[in-house]
Amino acid sequence: MSRIGKKPVAIPSGVNVNLNGSELTIEKSGKSQTLNCRPEVSLSWDEGARTVSVSVADGFDGDRFARAMWGTTRALIENMVVGVDKGYEKRLEINGAGWGATVQGPILELKVGYANPIRLNIPQGLDINVERNIVSVKGACKQTVGQFASEIRATRKPEPYNGKGVKYVDETIKRKQGKVFGS
Q1: How far apart are the first and last CA of the chain?
Q2: Neighbours of 29 (CB within 10 A)
Q3: Number of H helices, E strands in the chain
Q4: Which of 95, 88, 86 is nearest to 134 (CA)?
Q5: Beta strands of the chain (E only): which ranges?
Q6: How does pLDDT run across 151-179, given as a tens digit for each residue?
Q7: Do residues 108 and 44 both lie within one domain?
């Protein structure tokens, strides 16, 4: 039995839920996310308790993959609810002399020590803010926020000797001493 899958997902007040067959839509104040569930999983919406329950569909009781999708679907629904209600944010720090970032319309331009600046297209639904050397990525979809933040970090990963590079704000880089001369 899935311990995660058994717990119903609590829906906060102000968040609207629309369940149409295997398609679940969660929305609040202009933010909306949709999930098409697999056939191995069935959803039920309880209006009185304001919860969404996930269970294994009939005919898939002994299937190992169906049980895996049961817990995964419940986790995806909870991530959707948190994203629509509060949102997700990743903050990255750019360390290097003359390095920085600017937002130009739908493009994030990074100057991270290469001859030419790196231009990344900002995905739909993300809000990018740049303050000095801190880039914050905000959005309702946890996967999109994390993916774009990892693409920004991959442009110039932090190196252990001087500490230059793009890193998450809460990330610690193990520093190395380097070569010691004359010993």
Answers
A1: 62
A2: 10
A3: 3, 13
A4: 95
A5: 9-10, 16-20, 23-28, 31-36, 41-46, 51-56, 88-95, 100-104, 107-111, 118-121, 126-131, 134-139, 165-168
A6: 999 999 999 998 899 999 999 989 888 88
A7: no
Q: Are 104 and 148 in contact (CB under 8 A)?
A: no
Do 159 and 138 share a domain, yes or no?
yes
110 assigned to some structural domain: yes
**In the structure, what pLDDT confidence band is assigned to residue 21 with cuts at 50, 70 and 90?**
confident
What one-letter code names the amino acid at 48? G
Closest by CA to 88, choosing from 152, 48, 143, 140, is 140
Model pTM score: 0.88
- CATH number, position 124: 3.90.930.12
**Is 41 in contact with 63 (CB distance < 8 Å)?**
no
Residue 124 contacts residue 106 (beta carbons within 8 Å):
no
Question: DSSP letters of 63-83?
Answer: -HHHHHHHHHHHHHHHHHHHH
- Strands of the sheet containing 51-56, edge to edge, are 9-10, 51-56, 41-46
Q: Provide the residue range defining the domain that includes 134.
A: 88-168
Closest by CA position to 141, among listed 16, 31, 20? 31
pLDDT at 43: 93
